[in-house]
Amino acid sequence: MDLLPIDHKERSRRRLVELLRQNDGFDMVEAALVIASEEFATLDIEHELQRIRLIAAEGARRVFEENNPFARVDGLRQYMFEDLGFRGDTDNYNDPNNCYLHEVMNRRMGIPLTLSLLFIEVARAAGFRAVGIGLPGHFIARVRWQQRDILADPYHGGVIVSEEDCRELVGRTTGRPSLFRRELLRGATDRQMLSRLLLNLKHIHLERQDYARALGVVERLLMLTPNDPGEIRDRGLLKAHLGRPGAAIADLETYLTRSPKAPDAESVRGRVSWLRRKLTDLG
Fold first, then answer.
1. CATH of domain 6-190
2. Is 210 left (phi over 0), alpha (psi -120 to 50) or beta?
3. pLDDT tens digit string along 33-61?
4. Where are the domains of the chain?
5. How far is CA 147 from CA 6, 129, 170, 177, 266, in A?
């Protein structure tokens, strides 16, 4: 897949900036589709939003008369994961399509975050208060009905999970169950969810050594958190990989100024020195 023209990228990013100006009041589903639109030039975001709204409306209709919170959640689970066939992609987890919401809709497969995002949207249409839960190594959803909180795992078919299940999930995915903290169950903000979506894409592109796309993701992460020193460093390293030593030096020196005692500071200084020599050779 060829990289898209600059003008299309700029249109996508302008819309992302407009959404982010709403702070945590932005439409996370639309934001996820805007992220996808940078890769897919012909993506009709309004059409995709309507597809998701129709699924959400049907889910709400199916559980309309059910007052028991567990039965309501089970009705949504059956609708999404049995009738519609959404499931976790266990065969090709790091396929970037699992991060693009319209492709998750098309393929009925995704990663924990994108499946949770769709589940949250359907749950909200059904009257639940719903939020995402960003566990280390996994992502689930929390829904509330009549003052009852229920945790559901959309990646594993929407099954209801307990706090102890969450601890075990963290241990299974990271090898470190101690990373689980109860406060994580309070829920993630929309910005945190969007950041996690972008970080997933960043890691996928880095694994594939697709540095141009990885740089595009880092640039959007810096739209979310402009002063994040780690992302500024990574932007510089990626620019170096892409043959832009002058721009790379500027970012890496900014990183060193802001994080002079970082564990990798000495290594970054060495990279800056190497880039300076390279820039001299080019001149």
1. 3.10.620
2. beta
3. 999 999 999 999 999 999 999 999 999 99
4. 6-190, 227-282
5. 48, 10, 26, 29, 52
